[in-house]
User: What shape does this take?
Amino acid sequence: MSSSLHAVVSQPYKHGFVTEIESESLPKGLNEDVVRAISAKKNEPEWMLEFRLKAYRHWLTMEEPRWPNVDYPEIDFQDIVYYSAPKKKPTLNSMDEVDPELIRTFEKLGIPLSEQKMLANVAVDVVFDSVSVTTTFKEKLAEAGVIFCSISEAIQKYPDLVRKYIGSVVPYTDNFYAALNTAVFTDGSFCFIPKGVACPMELSTYFRINNEESGQFERTLIVAEEGASVSYLEGCTAPQFDTNQLHAAVVELVALDDADIKYSTVQNWYAGDENGVGGIFNFVTKRGLCKGKNSKISWTQVETGSAITWKYPSCVLLGDNSVGEFYSVALTNHKQQADTGTKMIHIGRNTRSTIISKGISAGQSNNSYRGLVKIGPKAHGARNYSQCDSMLIGPNCQANTFPYIEVGNPSAKVEHEASTSKIGEEQMFYFAQRGIGAEEAISMIINGFCKDVFTQLPMEFAVEATKLLGLKLEGSVG
Amino acid sequence: MAKGDIILEVRDLTASVAGVEILKGISLTVRAGEIHAIMGPNGSGKSTFSKVLAGHPDYEVTGGSITFMGQNLLEMEAEDRAKAGLFLAFQYPIEIPGVSNASFLRLAYNSVAETRGWDELDPLEFDDFIREKIQVVEMDPAFLERSVNEGFSGGEKKRNEILQMAVLQPSLGVLDEIDSGLDIDALRIVSQGVNQISNDNNAMVMVTHYQRLLDYITPDFVHVVSDGQIIKTGGKELALELERRGYDWVREEFERRTVTA
Assistant: This one.
């Protein structure tokens, strides 16, 4: 493209940008200039822009994946705003304009009314106070040498660290949404735990999608150096009002020798209403690299929200004796669709992985587990244990299990167990005959079913997750 | 309830499942302090009767009436029947993976507590309470930490049912083949449990195939059910006679009677 032609083509857009700057938002659509504009807006170094552009150009050559067992209308990628700041968010005039269902949800989550009133300003993350968590403890973390900040800040302050690791686990060529994310991500978290440091507290990010629409493409990078350990909590507990929105995040974890990363998620994006109108399309790439020997990465997820979830938190077990774990509860209700699971890629010797997946389908939802266990030719003594249980509530939902097992080393041991059960009339009658009502019965059955996963969650999260499942299933039986 | 008060009054009860009539006019009066045994051949409607009493949703009551503790039982949901003091010991108890027996029992206890006028118990209080109750069925405290009925042997499941009855202290215990699949030791333990729970203020209705249960639990009345009706009622000696002679003679006697009547 000649420079004059370029100027002409980008002109209307540049104008758009200038006028939009006051509202801190770019116009809809995606092209190289949008990518440049995002990078410029964030005052990024040249290498970062190059990284984004490469990803964008590659994305143009890619096809949207159609293999997941989910169904949704074509996404118009030119009909999306790729950069938008909080001021643009429509403000609610009073509590009366808040969806009553949302108010009830917050009441049941135990958030007092005074805090709910803050919701009227749509600062939902105020409720969870994520900002104060990160700022309050920054100093204490810094004393331990731990870096915990937004990815944008990290790119400015710690460019060498970011440059070394970003894209090293999920390259932009990895998949359609990873490429898109790399091109346009606007925020996210960065954690760096230096050699030998056990992070003195649990790090948590309650995602900022609520006050920043830019959070739809967030990027998280966590690096634990030799012998370091960290537990990171990701909460997506805020409902959304909007029609279908695309959320395409990338999370990369790197564990060096003897390092240990535990990553827990409670995902409760807006799931759409009972009729499947609205809700988030949650297309997320999460992967951990056990780069060093004896390293360990553990994913625990409780997925209850989103209209569509497409997500496979995975572990690449490169270091000898490294360990990967995946504990998952995925609940779908109404017309939600989930295609989620994990990949355990065994490359090093004596690598071990555990997969515990619990899928719960209610309403007319469709819930699939999809998992790959791959044992490479040099992974002598590798072991995997997988257990995938599905539970059906009601006659109109679906549960599917798609396990893929590829074993390239004869000394490997791979075990896979699966079960499907149904909360049936007999079970409900048994509870009723003991005086226990339907809602409590379901909550008890579900919590029992998910116990192996909930015990992996940090305490507060386990409590939250338990409540959430109860809320989500309310009225689905009886 | 005092001895002799009417706990359950069933009149001309008819009920069907999936459109097929199973109960064809059952009448039965149960008073406080009584133990009733309901016997009869397979498919006669014994288990259906117990499920209808408990309010199983698959069974449709098509006629007659049931009064329980002065209330119209047929207007009550299964849950409310349980709260009011009707307990069904299941022939096939349900497994609940991941839910400890102790937390299930406590939830059940606290669910009925308000209706019964009891205080709800917190986990510590309940622990004291339950440790006493498990002695009724000679159960190891380790059972309390295991998932409800999961991996339990047949005998353990039945003991667990009786433990639940001990916890919920019903006015009426309906025991659906509580003796099936039990070895002799388990039968003794289960029976002793029932005898300990049984008193002048409550009543038991036991559905059984075998007289051997009645060696341990002495019934006041034995009813023979055949083709959805009670065709003969007698004392405990009737069970012994059934053991010796089978059911056909009762049926024949009943048919002669109905023909002459």
Q: What stands out?
A: Chain A has two domains: 8-79, 116-473.
